[in-house]
UniProtKB/TrEMBL annotation:
InterPro entries for the chain: Bact_Sigma-Reg (IPR052016), PPM-type-like_dom_sf (IPR036457), PPM-type_phosphatase-like_dom (IPR001932)
Protein name (database record): PP2C family protein-serine/threonine phosphatase
Organism per entry: Streptomyces fildesensis
The keyword Ligase belongs to this UniProt entry's keyword annotation: no
Positions of the UniProt region annotated as Disordered: 65-85
GO molecular function, one term: protein serine/threonine phosphatase activity
Keywords: Hydrolase
Amino acid sequence: MTNFLSVERALRTAAPHALLEAVRSALAAHYGAHAVDLLMADYSQSVLQPVTALPHTATAVSVHSSAQGRAFGSQEPTEERSEDSDMIDLHLPVTVRGDRLGVLSVLLPPADCTPVAIRDLADIAGLLGHEILVAERDTDVYLQARRVNRLTLAAEMQWQLLPARSCARTEYSIGAQLEPAYAIHGDNFDWASTAQNLTLTITNGMGEGIEASLLTNLAVNALRNARRAGIGIADQAALADQALYAEHGGNAHVSTLLLCFDLATGQVQVVDAGSPQLWRQRDKAVERVPFEAQLPLGMFDQTDYVLQEFRVLPGDRLVFVSDGVYAAASPAGVAYEDQALARAIGAASLLPAADVPGAVLRELAAYRDADADDDALVVCLDWYGRSNPV
């Protein structure tokens, strides 16, 4: 415990840009580490990039075919025998409340790679993740390390607007992904939880480029402003609708699906203001859950929005998709939602929620017309519920 506390102290006192240097020095001194590397998941979650002398990084490794990727995917420590010596490379997921940031790789002598050391180092990787999230307020080092390519300005604005790409609580876990990750336009997701409920919004903005990003930014912040005032989702939609109409006079609108989950009962309130779809996997059956569609936000002045309700059961998987997913057509002109979407959701049934969006989007890429350039958004929510509802 003394070793762990020493590393913790080193991380908490390090400069925001120097967390990797601090953890390297501390792990060498207290755990016998011969080398320490931090790899960050890129925006598409396809590779892990080592943090080096930024804005450049060392060669990235695949999330899908590397030992580091296995640790990232399994969210468990992974041991790998070093190619250059009899040392052990220990790969540890860097994750904060279900948000998968990357992997911490520590090179150790076999004698020092004990169960106690592995447990300590796993906790240190989690602590490093917390410190990275705090440090990102003051440095671009870790954000730069997530980029394989330069983001478009619209994508930069959209990624800064998003919450985490995944999160987990006792009652649920969520994973989300946007593609093309480096050139997204108007699609967006947002969530926030309290002790009583989870609010989730899926947004499909119209237009392209900066205009689409600005429109979505206004819509999301209007919804957040209303949510943080403590009002229900029907009034959140109404206030965001007013904000958009006041700015654009009906010439621009945003399709949004708003949901509020009661964490104790699984009862869900819904406002369907446009095009995002909800698909549910219950047991082995995958089907779309339809709602009564209402007007998109900002289309007309003073629109009233009406709540609908359904209930989610423990074990249910909910998958939300934008029109860039369900309306995408194959070269033969067949929409993805007709049959392929349900198959893709079913094929990913054994994956955790954080991995489902990427799996569905990979199936989509193989299915649709190669020239398609619309945003594609997938959000997966696995519902566990409470064993003792209160």
